[in-house]
TrEMBL record:
Positions annotated to bind a divalent metal cation: H33, D35, H66, D175
GO MF terms held by the record: D-ribulose-phosphate 3-epimerase activity
Cofactor(s) needed: Co(2+); a divalent metal cation; Mn(2+); Fe(2+)
Keywords of the record: Carbohydrate metabolism, Isomerase, Metal-binding
Job description of the protein: Catalyzes the reversible epimerization of D-ribulose 5-phosphate to D-xylulose 5-phosphate.
Family: Belongs to the ribulose-phosphate 3-epimerase family.
InterPro entries: Aldolase_TIM, Ribul_P_3_epim, Ribul_P_3_epim-like, RibuloseP-bd_barrel
Listed pathway(s): Carbohydrate degradation
Protein name, per record: Ribulose-phosphate 3-epimerase
Active site: D35 (proton acceptor), D175 (proton donor)
Gene this chain is encoded by: rpe
Pfam families registered for this protein in UniProt: Ribul_P_3_epim
Length: 226
């Protein structure tokens, strides 16, 4: 059981001309979220393992890699080699998710599964016992700065119920449109990791936003636990 919610700022929203300085002022972050987009699984490109190595040199936070690619089985090792601590792959993209999860565990990384907004939570039934993290997308993947999809709360609550039925307690991460206005409700629904790109990096004081997101999420989590 966690004592507080974790915050994972998405580096996609950072100013890349000053990547080191951007990460340096986020010493409070639990994780750094790294969005990999291949131009096939999502209609956008971002960055790959070389940039992840540069991020690793600029932060002590754990590296939380979100792979939006059609061939996760072929690339997971690149990201573990580059320093990923957590690697999450889309259920919609993986042919053999248990094999990917095994491989990540063999390599000493935490394994996550991601579902897109249209994918029902029930589709996680077969892998919920195997994963360390479930990431629920609260926007359609491919771009930062989108609006949060309200139906996410129900999906998080349903996932919590599934975890209880299975007697497992993976981290539950929510990604997309997370701000100070929905952090508390997300914690109350059952989220334990909040990804935030624009809300953190576009703020005047990113560290303060990280602390506030964590505090609000934790207040929600405590309310849920009673
Ligand atoms: O995976 C994605 C988008 O595909 C996210 O991680 C975004 O990068 C989050 O950005 P904001 O919605 O918080 O600006
Ligand atoms: Co992401």
């Amino acid at each position: 059981m966690l004592d507080r919610v974790k915050v994972s700022p998405s580096v996609l929203a950072a100013d890349f001309t000053q990547l080191h300085a951007e990460l340096d002022r986020l010493s409070d972050a639990d994780y750094i979220h790294f969005d990999v987009m291949d131009g096939h699984f999502v209609p956008n490109h971002s960055f790959g393992p070389h940039i992840l190595m540069a991020v690793k040199r600029s932060t002590d936070a754990l590296l939380d890699v979100h792979l939006m690619v059609t061939n996760p089985d072929e690339v997971i090792d690149w990201y573990v080699d580059a320093g990923a601590d957590i690697v999450s792959v889309h259920l919609e993209a993986a042919d053999d998710l248990p094999a990917i999860i095994n491989r990540l565990h063999e390599r000493g990384a935490l394994a996550g599964v991601v579902i897109n907004p249209p994918t029902p939570v029930q589709e996680l039934e077969g892998v919920i016992d195997l994963v360390d993290i479930v990431l629920i997308m609260s926007v359609n993947p491919g771009f930062g700065g989108q609006s949060f999809i309200e139906g996410t709360y129900d999906k998080v609550r349903e996932l919590r119920r599934m975890c209880e039925r299975h007697g497992v307690d993976p981290l539950i991460e929510v990604d997309g449109g997370v701000t100070l206005s929905n952090a508390r409700a997300l914690g109350e629904a059952g989220a334990t990791v909040l990804v935030a790109g624009s809300a953190v990096f576009k703020a005047e004081d990113p560290s303060m936003i990280v602390r506030e997101l964590r505090e609000l999420g934790t207040i929600g989590m405590q309310a849920r636990e009673g």
